[in-house]
Amino acid sequence: MVTRLPDPREGVGEETVSSYLSCPAPPFAAERLGTARHRRLDRCVQFALLAAVEAVRDAGIGVDPHTLAADWDADRTAVLAGTGAGCVTAYDAHHLKLRADGPAALSPFAVPSSLPNSIAAQVSIALQARGPSTTVGSACAAGATALGLAADLLRLGRCDTAVVVGTDALLTPFHLAGFDRIGALSHRLDDPAGAPRPFDADRDGFVAGEGAGVLVLERAEHAAARGARVRARLLGHGSASEAYNAVRPRDDGSGLTAAVRAALADARLDPADIGYVNAHATGTPQGDEVEAAALARLLPHRPPVSSTKGVTGHLFGAAGTVEAALTALAVAEGTAPPTANLAHPSPGTTGLHLPTAPLRLGPVRAGLSVSAGFGGHNAALVLAPA
């Protein structure tokens, strides 16, 4: 959709507006979290809590409908949250209140609800998970990074279960204007549905989205003991920093390459074992080109590669968890999702197999999900069928 925001400067007429493309979440009943709770929470925390309850229930773990407490060993349950910006809608609202009405009007919950740790903290409080809890802030790689950290905690025996959240709600005037100033947003205002064009020759930037993705991870023996339905296995993860630029990736794709190689080594697999790739590809001219070249070099056997951001928009900190879930489903069900709006593949993607319709994969040994973020953060996850 097209979001039109008035110019906030004093003395500027109301007719002066800026237009941006965005992909907001559909209306949802935040009241399901409880009246007192939802009114104090940032929008991204509301997303996280609602998604977490659904994910825990889907994992076959009981959740009290009134308190939201989960039926598990609370002391052995961790919560890891990934976010690109944290609780920005709460911060904006409280800051405006302070400026308009003064310090005495500020809510006592202003600071606690605005801190990034509020995401992991509120999920832990609601679900009664008393194990390790932290929020990761590696920009758009944060969700994938959080999954990797959760895997390490499970391997080290620090917990039996980990709830991993990726969430962001960045459809604010500040963030939309800021992303636009660096040329990251699509300007296809006359065709919003066709605007996100990952890997396409006519791509001109991403469409900002919002939401949350949550996965429940367990040690294999713990899942087996309770008879859990296992959708997929997280075999390995890798992370790498480019140490190069605040917003641009290295032209040689070395950061993403290092993260993928680390993930494959962690999974004890060869590149040829990858049968599907969920790419980070956001639809920016430079980012997609660098990623496509790196993936083509890493995976010369040309497994199907798709970017689901053509449908979801760019979910920032939530992208890694949402796309890991989609990768898990792809390898479990043997179907690769297509890349939407890919009408004319960019010349730089000739080394990739880019399906434009759902593609039957057959048996797949493993899939790969890759994420990247401002500042040179790169993360890769290797997932296999259960």
Shape: globular
- Strand order, sheet with most strands: 1-2-6-5-3-4
Radius of gyration, in Å, reads 21 Å
Give the total of domains.
Answer: 2
**Total helical segments:** 12
CATH topology of the largest domain: Peroxisomal Thiolase, Chain A, domain 1
Encode the helix/strand succession as letters. EEHHEHHHEHEHEHEHEHEHHEEEE
The proportion of residues in beta strands is: 15-25%
Low-confidence stretches: none
- Label the CATH architecture of the largest domain: 3-Layer(aba) Sandwich
For CATH, the homologous superfamily of the largest domain is named as Thiolase/Chalcone synthase
- Structural category is alpha/beta
* Terminal Cα span: 38 Å
Q: How much helicity do the residues have? A: 25-40%
How many E-type strands?
A: 13
State the name of the first-level CATH class of the largest domain: Alpha Beta
Strand count, sense and closure of the main sheet? 6 strands, mixed
Q: Give the integer mean of the pLDDT values.
A: 94
Domain Ketosynthase family 3 (KS3): 1-385
Keywords: Acyltransferase, Transferase
Family: Belongs to the thiolase-like superfamily. Beta-ketoacyl-ACP synthases family.
Protein name: Beta-ketoacyl-[acyl-carrier-protein] synthase family protein
